[in-house]
Recover the amino acids of this structure.
């Protein structure tokens, strides 16, 4: 095979065969193809798109470029996973993993660090002093088996081709291509080895996908890929025009997740977690158990109120070396030195709480990182006290900023204040979910 022929074929809009896609991924990962040829192919894909078959072939070729786990062998039963396309205040994994595990469905998940406005799940977990995200393969498996829950960074070399191609996409303006995004996400999910996957595709100003149509297309493409790869799939499209829950920032989000695990927490965040956990149980029940959505919901609410889910979270933290005193007393999590509350200048209805502006306000305080390896401040962030549609009085608190460096407050304050719009006429609350797609 010759790379130039593949490039010409894709440039002219023809579909590549499975053999061609596998060859390309193998050669590029092995260092036998130069970046400029891979970049040219990515650009051709970006412009010409890919068929469903090509997208699946690309995903599987990337998934098989490294180790592919078979989680049900490790866990001794059906394995279920979740993935979020990423959003502001999205600490869902911290709640749904222990919640699902508390219902007797083991979960073994590898998560990532964050780039941009706030940390990823691993950064958030590191707010619990001592929590070890770097587990050996053996330890990962042992904890999965003995505790029914483990949550770490990557223990295996999962989909290394995606890592290389993503870095190239980043510098060649080829990130925003639907088949490339879908195959990138799904290659890692398939390599991570679950039988059933719940995808949470975010839509809105604080998400990758700004329109419902784009989010639906991405969700459908990922459901199709998973289905063709033999996985059970559910994708939900959820709102990311305003932050999820109240807390945005690493330790703040852990504290909010703990509150939720005790049956409290913000209403929207709790409802979101119940929905995602419900879909995970539905997949894990494989049509035989947990088919009654209302009964599942009641079970999940019970597991929050009786602290069964919290106990699983505590076990998770303890098993991975975390200081459980911080889990028992979240006030001992990293605390920022300064707090500042912004109040409403006038009464009215909340017309907007821009997820993007709130994210930038948290980033400005040091909650996120610009590039891989940058340090982040675990204690800082923003708490948002209002939701779109709320009726508020003059002087009501809108947001609290948590800062360690007062000099960073000014820009953060401006961003947070600009995020929120108050108007005279009533506004409908934003929906939590827009759509659900199932496969096969
Ligand atoms: N997340 C990924 O893992 N890959 C993409 O291409 C976009 C988001």
């Amino acid at each position: 095979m010759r790379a130039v022929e593949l490039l010409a074929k894709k440039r002219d809009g023809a579909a590549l065969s499975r053999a061609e896609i596998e060859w390309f991924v193998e050669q590029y990962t092995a260092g036998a193809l130069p970046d400029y040829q891979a970049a040219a192919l990515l650009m051709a894909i970006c412009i010409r798109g890919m068929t469903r078959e090509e997208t699946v072939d690309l995903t599987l070729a990337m998934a098989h470029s490294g180790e592919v786990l078979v989680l049900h062998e490790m866990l001794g039963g059906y394995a279920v996973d979740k993935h979020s396309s990423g959003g502001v205040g999205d600490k869902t994994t911290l709640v749904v993993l222990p919640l699902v595990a508390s219902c007797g469905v083991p979960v073994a998940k590898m998560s990532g660090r964050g780039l941009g406005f706030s940390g990823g799940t691993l950064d958030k977990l590191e707010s619990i002093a001592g929590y070890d995200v770097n587990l050996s393969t053996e330890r990962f498996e042992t904890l999965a088996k003995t505790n029914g829950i483990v949550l770490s960074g990557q223990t295996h070399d999962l989909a290394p081709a995606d890592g290389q191609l993503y870095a190239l996409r980043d510098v060649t303006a080829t990130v925003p291509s639907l088949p490339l995004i879908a195959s990138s996400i799904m290659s890692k999910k398939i390599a991570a080895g679950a039988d059933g996957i719940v995808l949470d595709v975010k839509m809105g100003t604080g998400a990758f996908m700004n329109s419902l149509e784009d989010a639906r297309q991405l969700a459908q493409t990922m459901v199709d890929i998973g289905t063709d790869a033999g996985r059970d799939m559910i994708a939900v499209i959820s709102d990311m025009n305003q932050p999820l829950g109240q807390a945005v920032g690493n330790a703040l989000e852990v504290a909010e997740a703990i509150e939720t695990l005790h049956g409290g927490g913000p209403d929207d965040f709790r409802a979101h977690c119940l929905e995602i956990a419900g879909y995970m149980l539905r997949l894990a029940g494989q049509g035989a158990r947990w088919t009654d959505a209302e009964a599942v919901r009641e079970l999940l609410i019970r597991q929050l109120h009786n602290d069964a889910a919290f106990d699983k979270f505590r076990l998770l933290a303890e098993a991975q070396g975390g200081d459980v005193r911080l889990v028992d007393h979240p006030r001992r999590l990293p605390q920022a030195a300064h707090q500042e509350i912004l109040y409403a200048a006038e009464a009215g209805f909340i017309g907007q709480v821009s997820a993007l502006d709130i994210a930038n306000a948290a980033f400005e305080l040091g909650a996120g990182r610009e590039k891989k390896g940058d340090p982040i401040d675990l204690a800082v962030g923003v708490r948002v006290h209002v939701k779109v549609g709320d009726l508020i009085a003059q002087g009501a608190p809108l947001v609290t900023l948590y800062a360690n460096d007062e000099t960073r407050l000014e820009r953060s304050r401006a961003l947070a204040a600009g995020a929120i719009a108050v108007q005279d006429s009533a506004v409908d609350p934003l929906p939590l979910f827009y759509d659900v797609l199932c496969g096969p």
